[in-house]
Amino acid sequence: MDFRIEPATPEQRRPKPADESSLGFGRIYSDHMFTMRWTSDGGWGEPTVAPFSNLDLSPASLVLHYGQTIFEGLKAYRNRGRPRTVNLFRAADNAARFNSSAVRLDLPEVDPDVFVGAIEALLELDHEWIPRSHGTSLYVRPTMIATEPYIGLKSTHEALFFIITGPVGAYYPEGFNPVKITVAERYSRAGPGGLGAAKTAANYAASLKAEKEALGRGFTQVLWLDAAEHRYIEEVGSMNILFRIDGTVITPPAGDTILAGITKDSVLKLLASWDIPVAEERLTIDDVLRAQENGTLEEVFGAGTAAVISPVGALEYRGQTHHIANGGTGPLAERLFDELIGIQYGAKPDPFGWIREVAPTGASG
Ligand SMILES: *Cc1c(COP(=O)(O)O)cnc(C)c1O
Fold first, then answer.
1. Which residue among 97, 139, 199, 204 is best mutated to probe the pocket of ligand 1, counting the most ligand atoms within 8 A of its Cβ?
2. Is 116 helix (H, G, I), strand (E, B) or coil?
3. pLDDT at 218 over 90
4. HSE (CB half, 13 Å, CA atoms) of 341?
5. Which tens digit of pLDDT belongs to each residue from 296-305?
6. DSSP string over 222-270
7. 262 CB near ligand 1 (under 6 Å)
8. Are 169 and 311 within one domain?
9. Mean pLDDT for the chain?
10. What's the structural domain count of the chain?
11. How big is the CA angle at 139 (ends 1 and 9), to the nearest 5 degrees?
């Protein structure tokens, strides 16, 4: 792919984190970023990889006032057996979802080959930023914003597509840490016909207050119910949610108000290959509590790129806390986690063709 490449000068390079055990998530950025500008008249301009820098943005830019923006999140993993090789997990699916978000937000679509090629170009220049210890990875954040300066509600004629990356720590350095969640009874994340199916800033802005209140009461995530009736289960935090009830894994189908997660799709494909029954159907909070009461609620877990699998140990609803899987991690959540990270790090076979191997030139082990 023909990209303009402006490598960082030695002075522009920043020291890499010395201690991989304290990387955390989202605070450290690699040396380079990708940018590509769009105008309605000229289409996409030159794809460019250049040193990471602040954006030059008019304070009148549409994105800052009306929220016309989308993003993606995926990870690049250093192959465990062959550390010169980097594994991208289902990146083409992130490209496709980015474009469906773009359509919903009336932003321009990006050629999926440019989307994936841009990530590969960043990995080429910044391969030394991909951490080496078990469970760590390089997080990749593609984003698009409406940059046209205009104070007035309209769709943009100018946009910027950019990608930044940064090393992130192991999500569970000391084994699983099951989350305590609480049902959002007053707030909604997404409504029918709204933006819930798109990865766009407004959905996350809508969730912040509920999450802060939950945190203040000792819960780490919010369980979202449908906006119309506050009965049907939708998502947990920014993850999809799955329930194992009497041997069957039940999960509400992606749609208008539920994001089509790539991790959840991978989980469903693995379960099918293991002959574990799956039902993609709506279920209510009452269905879940009934299963808990009669002892058939075996496991609850979230699925998303950041944590991969996030077991739920406790669920609060209307002032009552219910302990699931004895507050620990269920066997299926554990098996799914092991299988997925095994595939992602190249330690297990990849029967579904999810991994794209990238071999940066000059990469050392
Ligand atoms: C990103 C996201 C997910 C998980 O999607 P993955 O592709 O598995 O990372 C689920 N729900 C919401 C609201 C999200 O933003």
1. 199
2. helix
3. yes
4. 19
5. 999 999 999 9
6. EEEE-TTTS-BEEEETTEEEEEEETTEEEEPPPBTTB---HHHHHHHHH
7. yes
8. no
9. 96
10. 2
11. 60
Is any atom of ligand 1 closer than 6 Å to the C-beta of 238?
yes
Residue 142 maps to which CATH number? 3.30.470.10
Which domain range does residue 163 map to?
Answer: 4-173+349-358
pTM of the model: 0.97
Q: Which residue has the tokens 């609620």?
A: 297
Query: Residue 174: its pLDDT value, please?
Result: 72
Section 3-29 average pLDDT: 93
Say whether both 187 and 293 belong to one domain: yes
Strand partners, 175: 173
Query: By the 8 A CB rule, do 264 and 303 touch?
Result: yes
C-beta of 199 in contact with ligand 1 (< 6 A): yes
* Residue 363: band (very low, low, confident or very high) from pLDDT cuts 50, 70, 90: low
Task: State whether the beta carbon of 261 lies less than 6 angstroms from ligand 1.
Answer: yes
Q: What pLDDT was estimated at residue 190?
A: 95
Residues ≥6 apart with Cβ < 8 Å to 318: 183, 185
286-320: pLDDT as tens digits: 999 999 999 999 999 999 999 999 999 999 999 99
User: Distance between CA 160 and CA 32 in Å, rounded?
Assistant: 16
